[in-house]
Amino acid sequence: MLGKRCNICVIGVGPFARLFIRCYQRHPCVGTVSVFSRDPQWLLERAKPLGIAPEHCYASFEIVPMPAHPSMC
Prior knowledge:
three-stranded parallel β-sheet, NAD(P)-bd_dom_sf, globular, alpha/beta, Gfo/Idh/MocA-like oxidoreductase N-terminal domain-containing protein
């Protein structure tokens, strides 16, 4: 992935997910880090201290931006 950056959407914003979010935010090959949670209020409250903008918070899978050929791991 030399020169490319991937965007990540983490499912959940609980304590365990927040550890991964911090790692992704610091990784040089990661562009945007987004988060998903079914509870919009919980999502926004937990995302703000992580520095994740509201436009990168999703409460529905249908609105999470997906590339034509996503890589899953």
